[in-house]
Amino acid sequence: MGSVVLVTGAGRRLGARFVRAVQEDPAVDRVVAVDAAAPAQPLGRAQFVRADLRQPVIARVLAEHAVDTVVHLDVTGTAPGVPRAGVKETNVIGSLQLLGACQKSPWVRRLVVKSSTAVYGSAARDPAVVDEAGPHHAPPHSGFAKDVGEVENYVRGFARRRPDVAVGVLRFAGILGPGPGAESPFAAYFALPVLPTVLGHDPRLQFVHEDDALAVLRLLACLPESASARGNGTYNVAGEGVLLLSQCARRLGRPTVALLPPVARWAGAALRGAGLGDFSPEQWRMLTHGRVVATDRLREDLGFTPAYGTAETFADYARARGPGLLPPALVGAVVDRLAQLRTP
User: Fold this and answer.
1) Cβ neighbours for 37, distance < 8 A, ≥ 6 positions apart
2) Terminal-to-terminal C-alpha distance of the chain
3) Quick one: which of 18, 196, 201, 313 has the most CB atoms within 10 Å?
């Protein structure tokens, strides 16, 4: 008998793609896909269960299907048509309900949680590269970043109470892919026709390709029980290399508008109220200071290296978006010409 895998967040693009991928693994016998909304994409042979994680019904689902592996993907920064309060409830209250159900289940042996590097926050005093140990000079106090911090606290508590369960937490940099739909705060940000930035700052950014995100999720979910120690821990996941925000804007052909910090906070509140992105104070700190994380543990403990670097990931995303208001080739030529003029 192979594993019985339960996947939350199966109604969205990343969740549906993972459901289709994991059911093809020879180590998996059955897949149970769970979401509060009907999936917009096919789920293959998986059994879909419509359930709201915020309700205790998830415990019955685990018991009825004797689930031994739980992959929790229903932690997200954006959800089309759902207000911020609803997203937060699903992230935090839904995760708490799911972990409570897993704690009581005698069958669960592995838990994989999709988290985010946003948990580190972003501050001027941060080191150039942040590893899984920290730091937390400016711990997140709002938005999606705060959500993932709370979810990870609950996961650590669960791991202490159930030491027999292998618990793997994957902290993803901004996930980008060629397909439609914004599944990360940065995907929603880059979809804007004009990109608001913070005056005087050009942060370093990292991204991970959607295909790489699926690959590492499948690797961790399908590790044999004898290898549970390998998948027991927290891992940063990001493509190699970095991009500056200005480089991203040019490659998308998006014009930018630089705002003073007080104006940026006001604009962020307006955009968030219009449902155009997260734009919490934590998001603005990211657009100010940036963040780069180390991925040594991912390579050394799991033997996984993303196939796409940060620049390749962004190029794939930009190709799918089509040309922006400013042709990238023309903007690049102007920038190169200005650089030549400044050179003595």
Assistant:
1) 11, 50
2) 71
3) 313
The residue whose two tokens read 């490659």 is 251
Task: Provide DSSP, 168-236.
Answer: EEEEE-EEE-SSSS--SHHHHHHTSSSEEEETT---EE-EEEHHHHHHHHHHHHT--GGGGGGG-EEEE
Q: Are 310 and 207 in contact (CB under 8 A)?
A: yes
Burial level of 327, CB count in 10 A (0-12/13-18/19+)?
Answer: exposed
Q: Is the dihedral of CA 88, 89, 94, 96 positive or negative?
A: positive
Question: Rounded to whole angstroms, what are the CA distances from 317 to 21, 203, 236, 252?
Answer: 21, 19, 21, 9
- Residue stretches of the chain with pLDDT short of 50: none
Determine whether 170 is exposed, middle or buried from the number of CB atoms within 10 Å of its CB (0-12, 13-18, 19+): buried
* CA–CA separation, 337 and 37 (whole Å): 51
Q: Please give the structure tokens belonging to residue 67.
A: 């689930």
Q: What is the Cα–Cα distance from 227 to 258, expressed in whole angstroms?
A: 49
Q: Which helix (H) or strand (E) holds 112?
A: strand 110-116
Percent composition of the chain: helix, strand, coil (DSSP 3-state, to 5) = 45, 20, 40
Predicted TM-score (pTM) of this structure: 0.90
* 132: DSSP letter: T
Q: What percent of the chain has pLDDT over 90?
A: 62
